[in-house]
Amino acid sequence: MTMNSDEKLLDEGIVTIRMDSLLEYWDPIADNVWGCGLITDEEIRNYSGPLRYAPAKQNSAEFFDREFNIARIAYLLNNGWDAAEGDIEPVTLDVGLRGYTPAELIVDGNHRVAAAKLRGDETITVAIIGDVNKAIAVFVEGVYIDDY
Predict the structure, then answer these.
(1) Number of domains in the chain
(2) N or C end of the chain: which has fewer CB within 10 A?
(3) Domain that holds residue 125
């Protein structure tokens, strides 16, 4: 496995990757991942309601609620995720295996990725499910995910 200065293998399956590489394939704000319509950067930055640090349970009513998702991203934007209870683990990506690419790249961490994007983070630490070499090829070396 080759590595360059923009990428660091931290532990088995834990990798720091460039945000722009991740956002090329999956952008939670632009991709309507919560099923509540597209959420704009301005809505998040200008949100003045109560902030939400607790994540929603998958497929709960909150999970699909537009205001909940805006409030959660706004919290993470303002406070980071180390401060958010239960959100100290890295974002989890499923890159699949050779010949298979899952429908959803981010398994856990869409709100954190959205906040990192709005903060202008250049890199993000992720846990990889699937082929770590594939992840490095795609997110570090620039290989198109379906060509790996």
Answers:
(1) 1
(2) N
(3) 8-147
